[in-house]
């Protein structure tokens, strides 16, 4: 089958839909875009839990839907460009769900260069082969991996990967702080615990970030 040609889109940011090897369609910037720029506000088509379980999840829709944050089990299909964003482990676009307006807002999280693909983060638990993992830091066996932030009680039970990445590639900053009990070890060293710190520039994105927060209060990266 012939490769589909690029699809121009009616927007003032110069976004273009292109066919990408190994990914299918993707969204490309044809000119630089500043950080914190709203790329798209997509209305959504909502499916009840019952109709999605019986029908939607057994179709191609299951690759494009978002979990709706109202605890009803509803699923949402983003219309417009909202269904074109591919996954990246290092996304340059964030999204926030406006349940009241029934739409999803997509915003750049860093400066975008001409030719960059615009990607969001789907999940740690992917249902497809991640063709985005091409960074040398992940492929080079000589790249040191820090174990300073490894959690001793980390498990795979929640389906979230606990593989560690180089610290400079994580959207978090790790540091140590004193334990509440102020316990000192036998050699006189003050005991510390590991912690993650993340700056959330858009408060409405907090809900999305908390989706990777486990019940025991630990973060998985």
TrEMBL record:
InterPro entries: SET_dom, SET_dom_sf. Residues 137-160 are annotated as: Disordered. Residues 137-153 have a biased composition (Polar residues). Residues 13-123 form the SET domain. It comes from the Eukaryota. This is SET domain-containing protein.
């Amino acid at each position: 089958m012939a490769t589909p040609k690029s699809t121009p889109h009616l927007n003032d940011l110069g976004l273009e839909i292109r066919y990408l090897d190994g990914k299918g369609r993707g969204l490309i910037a044809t000119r630089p875009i500043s950080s914190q720029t709203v790329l798209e506000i997509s209305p959504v088509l909502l499916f009840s839990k019952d109709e999605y379980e019986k029908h939607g999840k057994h179709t191609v829709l299951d690759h494009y839907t978002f979990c709706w944050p109202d605890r009803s089990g509803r699923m949402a299909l983003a219309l417009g460009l909202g269904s074109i964003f591919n996954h990246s482990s290092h996304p340059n676009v964030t999204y926030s769900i406006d349940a009241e307006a029934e739409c999803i807002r997509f915003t750049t999280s860093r400066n975008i260069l001409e030719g960059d693909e615009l990607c969001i983060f789907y999940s740690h638990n992917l249902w497809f082969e991640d063709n985005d993992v091409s960074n040398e830091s992940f492929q080079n066996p000589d790249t040191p991996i820090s174990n300073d932030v490894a959690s001793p009680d980390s498990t795979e039970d929640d389906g979230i990967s606990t593989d560690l990445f180089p610290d400079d590639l994580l959207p978090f900053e790790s540091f140590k702080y004193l334990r509440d009990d102020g316990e000192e070890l036998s050699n006189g060293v003050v005991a510390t615990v590991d912690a993650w710190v993340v700056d959330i520039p858009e408060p409405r994105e907090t809900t999305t970030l908390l989706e990777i927060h486990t019940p025991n209060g630990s973060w998985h990266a």
